[in-house]
Design a protein that fits this description.
This protein is an all-alpha fold. It has a single domain (3-147), classed as Alpha Horseshoe (Serine Threonine Protein Phosphatase 5, Tetratricopeptide repeat). It is built from nine helices and no strands. The chain has helices spanning 3-11, 14-23, 27-33, 40-47, 50-59, 74-81, 84-93, 108-115, 122-147. The longest helix is centred in the last third of the chain and has 26 residues, at 122-147. Keywords: ANK repeat. InterPro entries: Ankyrin_rpt, Ankyrin_rpt-contain_sf.
Length: 158
């Protein structure tokens, strides 16, 4: 990946992103062509750069479903890093990101269960999960509850 693009993502500088695009109009397409790659969206998710991440989601929504070399999507990373606002913004744009399966078939909901509900995201993830795939995600949620009795959650089935 272009080093200037990587730096723009790490620092969250949207203006620098557009400078990189002006110098090389195909820079994002080239990243998108690689099957497993740490995209600028992955980097922004790691760093908690919400504005940059949202701009990247507008430009290249496909980056949100890409897995990096560790088998993680940007939403997986946001949850693991504890970036609650970032995770919520991802879900505002696309609730279909919740069932994206990464390494060992784990979804971002699995990672949320691993860290517990410290981020207060479980209800939001479950709601999105039920909208996207009621049965599959409900099974995952129930497994999480059985594995960790400390999760306190409620949701309505409307």
């Amino acid at each position: 990946m272009d080093e200037n693009l990587r730096k723009a993502a790490r620092t969250g500088k949207v203006n620098e992103l557009y400078r990189v695009i002006q110098r090389n109009e195909n820079v994002l397409r080239r990243v998108d062509e690689v099957e497993f790659i740490k995209t600028p969206l992955h980097i922004a998710a790691e760093e908690g750069c919400i504005e940059f991440a949202m701009e990247m989601m507008n430009l290249k929504p496909s980056f949100a479903r890409k897995l990096n070399h560790q088998g993680l999507s940007p939403l997986h990373i946001a949850v693991r890093k504890g970036h609650k606002k970032m995770a919520l913004r991802f879900l505002e744009i696309d609730k279909d990101l919740v069932p994206v399966r990464g390494k060992k078939g784990k979804t971002p909901l699995h990672y949320l269960c691993n860290v517990g509900n410290q981020l207060g995201l479980l209800d939001t993830f479950l709601e999105a999960s039920l909208i996207v795939s009621k049965m599959l995600q409900l099974r995952i949620a129930l497994l999480c509850i059985l594995q960790s009795k400390t999760i306190d959650w409620t949701f309505s089935n409307s």
